[in-house]
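User: I'm writing a tutorial on reading structure tokens. Could you give me a worked example: one chain, its sequence, then its tokens, then a sentence or two explaining what the tokens reveal?
Assistant: Sure. Here is the example chain.
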Amino acid sequence: MTVPDRVRVQVSVVIPAHNAAATLAETLESLHAQTFQGWEAIIVDDGS
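And here are its predicted structure tokens:
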């Protein structure tokens, strides 16, 4: 898949998610609301 230049990933946001069920949706909504679009989210769940 080819990604247009304007949406290429420039920033990776790593989100640790240990017992984060109560806050993960709000965290992702906040990230999605940013005006900068060149990001990717990496959610790391340790199996909690």
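What the tokens reveal: The first helix runs from residue 24 to 32. The radius of gyration is 13 Å.
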